[in-house]
Amino acid sequence: MKTRHVTLSPKASLSLRLLAELIEEGRLRKGWTRDELAERVGVGVVTIRQVAKGSPRVAIGTYLEAAALVGVSLFTDDLDTLKQEQATQRERLTLLPKRVRRQTQESLDDDF
Q: Boundaries of each HTH cro/C1-type domain copy (predicted)?
């Protein structure tokens, strides 16, 4: 299988490494091995090793699940507040157009 290469901006790369380090710290504080975290997340230990390195090839859901399990607070720890924030965001999205179309530049004929 061909390995896909993912290029991130410096800011995204640094943020991903920070998240990876927070997950690794949480795992160590809980006293879990990488095998134990992998089992809880539902992935292989190789994937957890990639998470620990901050690999952009790992699915974002895997990072989020690992973070939640080890206690890394990404938004809020309160489930009701998280649901309310999601509902508010959903309402904001309904106010925006469903899709964006590329604007075409029409030349103005201002020669009277």
A: 23-50
Q: What does the DSSP 8-state code read for residue 103?
A: P
- Per residue in 34-93, pLDDT (tens digit) is 999 999 999 999 999 999 999 999 999 999 999 999 999 888 888 899 899 999 999 999
57: nearest Cα among 102, 95, 8? 8
Q: Does domain 10-94 have CATH number 1.10.260.40?
A: yes
Give the global pTM: 0.78
Contact 35, 45 (CB under 8 A): yes
Q: How far apart are the first and last CA of the chain?
A: 64
Contacts of 105 (CB under 8 A, 6+ apart): none
User: Within 10 A of 108 (CB to CB), how many other CB atoms are there?
Assistant: 6
